[in-house]
Amino acid sequence: MEVDGAAASVPLLKWKSDFSRTFQYYLDKSTPHATGRWLGTAGMAAIYFLRVYFIQGFYIITYGLGIYLLNLLIGFLSPLADPELEGTDGPALPTKGSDEFKPFVRRLPEFKFWYSITKAFCVAFVMTFFSVFDVPVFWPILLFYWIVLFFLTMKRQIVHMIKYKYVPFSMGKQVLSDLSVGGFWHWAGMTTVSM
Fold first, then answer.
1. Mind giving me the DSSP string for 68-120?
2. Residue 6, exposed/middle/buried by CB under 10 A (0-12, 13-18, 19+)?
3. Are 113 and 76 in contact (CB under 8 A)?
4. Membrane-crossing residues (predicted)?
5. Which stretch of 37-46, 80-89, 136-145 has the lowest confidence by average pLDDT?
């Protein structure tokens, strides 16, 4: 009897291993395609919200999803080494103009941020098929409470950004302007000699 159970689990383990490997392969292939990934997640979010709208229920699931997304957003906007949370001996955010420039490193990288959001929408969507999760609530109160929580949390985060002088977003590659011959020498701290 034990041998039959073990023999039956071997194909299941092989299938699980193959599925996991294939899933990871496609996940790795999607890494450089940020726009496509986010558009797919936006489509999944739209499908979820349409389902909740037409069913007129599952507001508590949506509220929990909103709190989880807010938590992910804070991780995405926060630096890896937060000076308020830990006294770092290593690299830290510059607090004065004379401090050395250190690039912003997120506590939650963009890919993990996207992946967590996508998983959250998928789990919430599946939960809408089970009536046990459709707890009757007065949704305007939940919405109002979430909006207040969002603004208070974002205010705290923005104050933190201003205090430690960091911006969690960069719009493309930094380019030096005016790199003409004279501009380069001036930028490098040297003067040109005219003959």
1. HHHHHHHHHHSBSS-TTT---SS-----STTSPP----BSS-HHHHHHHHHHH
2. exposed
3. yes
4. 48-70, 113-131, 137-154
5. 80-89
- For the chain, how many structural domains are there in total? 1
- From first CA to last CA, the distance across the chain in angstroms is 97
Amino acid occupying residue 168: P
* Residues 81-118 pLDDT 10s: 777 766 555 555 555 555 565 677 788 899 999 999 99
Q: Which of 109, 117, 128 is nearest to 41 (CA)?
A: 117
CA 162 from centre of chain: 21
Q: What is the DSSP letter of 153?
A: H
* Residue 43 DSSP code: H
Per the domain annotation, does 179 fall within a domain? Answer: no
Is 177 a member of any domain?
no
Residue with tokens 């999803």, as numbered in its chain = 65
pTM of this structure: 0.73
Helix (H) or strand (E) holding 30: helix 2-30
C-alpha–C-alpha distance, residues 190 and 182, integer Å? 9
* Domain-embedded: residue 176: no
> How many Cβ atoms are within 10 Å of 184's Cβ, its own excluded?
13
Amino acid of residue 13: L
